[in-house]
Amino acid sequence: MILALIPRLAAVVFSKGYGMHDDHFGPIEQPFIIMQYLTYWTGRTIPHGHSIVYPTLHYVLFNALEAVGIRDPQTKMFVVRFLHAAYSLLVVYYGYRIAEALSDRPTARKAGLVLALFWPLPFLSVRNLIEVVCIPPLMAGMYYAVASRSNLRNAFVAGLWFGLAFVFRYQTLLVTGTVGLVFLFRKEFHHTFWCATGFLLSAFVVQGSADIFAWGYPFASFIEYVRYNFAHGEDYTTGPWYNYLLLVFGTLLPPLSLLLMYGFLKNWKKAAVIVLPVLVFFVLHSYFPNKQERFILPVVPLILVLGVIGLEESIRKSKYWIRHARLLQSFWAAYWVLNLILLVPFSLYYGKQSRVEAMYELYGKPLEGFVLVGGKVGTSQPPLFYTGKYPVSYFEVNSDERLVSLKSELSESKVRITHVVFFGTEQLDDRVGRVSRELGLALKLERRTDPSFLDVVFYRLNPKHNKNEITFVYSALGS
Prior knowledge:
single chain, alpha/beta, 5-stranded mixed beta sheet
């Protein structure tokens, strides 16, 4: 647990910003906007297809912080990251307990160590992704499901945890349902009943009551979520059926990842209550057209823990690995070298640094309206949370034609432009001059904000989907 805490605390301090759209603009931006502009919430007429519970927790936290005088956006997010890092330690704790219940203490220690220092987890743990936030209750539910064979009460506790995981990520219902089917197949009917009772109790108390308050009837957001995904499943990132298989293979770091994936499947009878639900979750996500990488994250820690258990037991019974102990040691050595090489930069990764710092530059300043001027890959949605102000008008300019039309639009709307943010260094002076002339603004450079190292790497690998460019923040005065 101490080893797990070290990279997570590093991520709390250094891993600012956000990794992707969904770990900021839903759970952070929405509660911030509602605090400043209640109509944003009261104006909704149909159920929102995501749980409001997680954003509501941030809404309560932000109000509490402001009540004690903490208003700075970066300070608020430091608190958010710290709370998430502490919460994520439950993943390591229950991963260890699962391994101990299914194997022995030495294997549990190894599984716990691997999980504590698994390279993507510290970075992901301080993000606001519901696919990651659901992992601690999912791991806890799995532990109590395993422990229910010795104590029926644990089946009820497992259901309570599974219900909480469902509140954060609706797709975990696939895991819970398959756990119930495994209980039924083993003729553990009382286990099925108590697990279902625990699940329904926690899901209704938390999610059901929240939806009654928000939309007038229980599980309204879940119903809307299912409806939307069946109607728009092919509107987003798609890929081949083996997309997640390759993702897990790479994330667990080859060549050891092959052995860990084999180890996960090896003890499927003994650990059926975990292996089968994970496989169902994995297969159905592989079948569904929308294949964003983050969707498979909830079960990756379980694959890792079961992989270590199965591999360790296989080694003890295998004459081959007894004869080739050095080969196995080299696999583990390669794993730890690669893992640590990735662990350090990812734990320190400031996601979307240039965008965040550009908006943070506007915090505390007389901000009224601003213009975003795109470079060769265009503009990006600004994280207004870091300005500390809402509502605020902003306009995106990605062509000369749009710049011309914006001039007349501003004259009609009477919005006063106080700042202009330029993306990219290409022909910067020309773009600054054109904006200054067309909009009649005297521009003064206030700050240049650069992307972080990994932002630069991701931009070069895929500039279309990773618009991590240098930004330039100018203050604007009417000429």
